[in-house]
Structures are given as structure tokens and as C-alpha cells.
Design goal:
Elements (H helix, E strand, L loop, with lengths): L21 H11 L5 E2 L14 H9 L14 H13 L10 E4 L1 H13 L5 E6 L3 H9 L3 E6 L10 H7 L4 E7 L11 H14 L2 E5 L15 H5 L4 E6 L12 E6 L2 H17 L11 H6 L5 H4 L4 H15 L3 E2 L8 E2 L2 E2 L9 H12 L1 E2 L1 E2 L11 E4 L4 H20 L8
Parallel strand pairs: 1-12, 3-4, 3-5, 5-6, 6-7
Antiparallel strand pairs: 2-8, 7-8, 9-11, 10-14, 13-14
Helix pairs in contact: 1-13, 4-5, 4-9, 6-7, 12-14, 13-14
Length: about 425
């Protein structure tokens, strides 16, 4: 008799992370069979030839001998002081260093912050499309995601009135991803002020994922949410992985701002959870202070002529040349979020398209539905490859969409 199977937690039934899911596994199988696959599914700069700045690597090397022991559960004091100084310079009302947390990437801190907040059945308001870790962390911590729309028809910006309409007695927090992943939208200050007003009326915690804060194009606005929130409780998330091209360092931080009496108990809950995991990896924490106080290494990449800027140009022009595609020009972050026109391919299926693009043209993108977007006609593509590679990718995309058009029933063809 075979032993019984080990059954996974029921919590996982509604958890998805297709960025590294079925399509990514199929891509690895194609590579194992000898095919070269262009992976455009993950914003991982090191896989496209980017390097972390040399002064960050030097700081880690210089402090290896100081990294054998656990550090404080919230992180190295010098690193937290540097984070605190930056947040205060941006106008955030962070009470002190004890309100700064360093984690093994922002991913760990998102989970920790929601775990410290949620009771079973509590609701978190999330953008649609979202970065799916936010939905997963909400579900895994017994919460319920509720989505506010950020459609292409509004340049992927939310409507504060729609956010307000979603607020109910179990709502605990509003999440913003700004600059946005996957759409590249940057939120103007006036929009942030209206969202803060909603949070104030309903006594909600604001959670602002600002990991792409320094990656913006053509003077796109960036206002730190905490600077608008003032005394209202707000957590801002940042890290080394994107702006400093150091994903593998696994270093992120969270700063809790707001009036002390409003955030003290929650801060203590976060500190308890941080202590239970002992501390974040110590060697890479030594890179935080030089990253925040050293030379700017991202501006040249995002300015006209810089590699990221020109990659974005290649994506925008590729979509503009297409018979099938529309795309809101991304104003920040490392992605574009094109959509397929309904008048040309009315029965478009984003998952079927992504699979065909992988199987037929060996290019891997992420379907828009992977970002908790219903009835999606979108896909996400990273801006990290060389511009010439991206131009080639759009030629591959056009070929697949043309074949899908040819296969439509005659009644569907205009």
C-alpha cells in the first residue's frame, strides 16, 4: 500500500505567482532541449549585464570580518540611520531609528507588515493590476484582497472615489505601488493627497511599495507617500534590488511613519516578528549606507541616451508600429504593459498568447492576468534587455499575433 500523500496548506489554493510559474518552467525545459530563450518575465538586472555599483561591493568586502554574528533584529544601526535620514529628508514623519526595519528584500517585509496587521477576514485594498506578491501575502496572512482598477484608459492611474467605495468595516489598509509594477505609472501628488484623505476618513494604514523610486523617465513625478501622509500611519518600502541593480543582495527596508501613539503597538508587533526570524543577512547590509549617501548611479541609465531610456523607447516604438498593440508609455520602473486591441483580436487569450510566444518564438513574457487583472488583454515585458533585442522581440510578437489573427473564425474577422 502506498503511503498517503502530503497535502499542502489550504492557504495556497488561491495563491498565484505566475512570474515564476508554469511558463517559466516550460522555458527552462526548452533551454534544456537546446533552445535559446529570451526571458523577459523578471526585472532581474544582473541577468542582462547590469552590475551593482562598485562602491557597494567594496563596502561588503571591507566588512566581511564584521558580519559573522547576528545583528539587531531590525538591522545594522548605521544602515538604519542612513535610511532614517533619507526618509526624513523626503518629509516623512518617522519617529526614530526604532521605526526602521531591514529585511531579506522587500518581499520579506511585505509579508511581515501584513502579518503584524491582519486578523482573519480583514481586507486589504490592492491595485489591479498588482504585483502578485501583495495578493499572496494578504491571503497567506488570512486577509482578503479587494482590488481597485488602474486601467489603461486612465493611464493606469487609480480613482480615489473608487477606492473609497471599496472601504468597509473590515478594511485595514490601502496598498500603492508607486512607481508602478507592472504598468510604469507614476502617481502625481494631487492623486496621492486624495488617497491619503480616503485613508484618513476610514482610519486605514497606508502601505507604499516604492522599490522603483529612482527609476523614472522624462521628468516623471515622484512624491513619497509618507511625505503626504504626515501623522497618518504609513509604511514605505525601498531597497537595493532595482535602483542599485543588486537583486541578489536581498536587502530591503521598511520605514513606519506617523504619530507615535498611533503606530507604537503596530511597531512593537513588527519588531516581534522581526526578532522571530533573528535578522536579515548581515554582509549586504553594509552596502545600504554607501548606496544612500554615495554617487547617483541610476540617473545616466534613465536619461535620454541611457540604456534603460533607449530600451523603453524601443518598446514604445515597437508597440506603435504594431497592427495589434496599444501601450501606455511607462513613466517609471522597469516594465511596459502593452495590450492587444479588441477590434483586431476580439477573442484574445493572454495566457494562450504567452504560451505561443514562448513555444513558437522562444520569448517569455508574463500574461496580464498574472497580476490579478480580470479579462486581461495585457502582457508585461521588462525593459532590461538591449534596445536591439527588444526590437527583435516585438517582431516575434507581431508574427505570433498575425498567426492568431489568421486562425480566427471568419465571423470574427472585421
Amino acid at each position: 500500500m502506498r503511503p498517503p500523500a502530503v497535502h499542502p496548506s489550504l492557504h495556497l489554493a488561491d495563491v498565484r505567482y505566475e512570474i515564476r510559474g508554469t511558463l517559466a518552467r516550460r522555458a527552462r525545459a526548452l533551454e534544456a532541449a537546446g533552445h535559446a530563450v529570451l526571458k523577459l518575465n523578471i526585472g532581474n538586472p544582473g541577468r542582462f549585464g547590469f552590475r551593482a555599483p562598485a562602491h557597494l561591493e567594496a563596502a561588503i568586502t571591507a566588512h566581511l570580518a564584521d558580519s559573522d554574528a547576528y545583528c539587531h533584529e531590525q538591522g545594522l544601526e548605521s544602515a538604519r540611520e542612513a535610511i532614517l535620514a533619507v526618509q526624513r529628508s523626503r518629509g516623512a514623519a518617522v519617529p526614530g531609528i526604532e521605526h526602521v526595519f531591514i529585511g531579506n528584500g522587500v518581499s520579506e517585509l511585505i509579508d511581515l507588515s501584513l502579518r503584524a496587521l491582519l486578523n482573519p477576514g480583514d481586507e486589504v485594498l490592492l491595485p489591479a493590476p498588482d504585483y502578485p506578491l501583495w495578493s499572496a501575502a494578504t491571503i497567506l496572512n488570512d486577509g482578503t484582497p479587494r482590488y481597485y482598477a488602474c486601467p489603461a484608459s486612465r493611464a493606469h492611474l487609480p480613482d480615489p472615489d473608487e477606492i473609497a467605495a471599496l472601504c468597509g468595516p473590515r478594511t485595514r489598509a490601502i496598498v500603492l505601488i508607486h512607481p508602478n509594477n507592472p504598468t510604469g505609472a507614476c502617481y502625481p501628488r494631487e492623486l496621492l493627497e486624495r488617497i491619503v484623505a480616503v485613508a484618513a476618513r476610514h482610519d486605514l494604514l497606508l502601505l507604499s511599495d516604492e522599490i522603483y523610486d529612482g527609476i523614472r523617465y522624462d521628468g516623471a513625478p515622484y512624491t513619497p507617500l509618507a511625505s503626504v501622509a504626515g501623522e497618518l500611519p504609513c509604511i514605505a518600502f525601498g531597497g537595493l534590488s532595482k535602483v542599485h541593480r543588486a537583486c541578489g543582495f536581498r536587502i530591503g527596508w521598511a520605514t513606519l511613519s506617523g504619530a507615535g501613539e498611533r503606530v507604537d503597538a503596530y511597531r512593537d508587533a513588527m519588531q516581534l516578528l522581526a526578532a522571530l526570524r533573528l535578522c536579515a543577512n548581515v554582509p549586504a547590509q553594509w552596502a545600504i549606507e554607501p548606496a544612500l549617501t554615495g554617487p547617483d548611479s541610476i540617473a545616466a541609465l534613465t536619461a535620454s541616451g541611457g540604456r534603460l531610456y533607449e530600451a523603453r523607447r524601443a518598446v514604445v516604438e515597437g508597440a506603435a508600429r504594431s497592427r495589434f498593440l496599444e501601450c501606455v508609455t511607462p513613466r517609471g520602473a522597469l516594465y511596459a504593459f502593452p495590450s492587444v486591441r479588441a477590434d483586431v483580436l476580439p477573442d484574445f487569450d493572454d495566457n494562450a498568447f504567452a504560451l505561443r510566444l514562448l513555444e513558437e518564438e522562444h520569448a517569455l513574457v508574463v500574461p496580464g492576468s498574472s497580476f490579478n487583472l480580470k479579462d486581461s488583454r495585457h502582457f508585461r515585458i521588462t525593459l532590461l534587455p538591449e534596445p536591439a533585442q527588444l526590437a527583435d522581440v516585438f517582431a516575434r510578437i507581431e508574427r505570433v499575433l498575425a498567426r492568431m489573427e489568421e486562425e480566427q473564425p471568419a465571423s470574427k474577422v472585421a
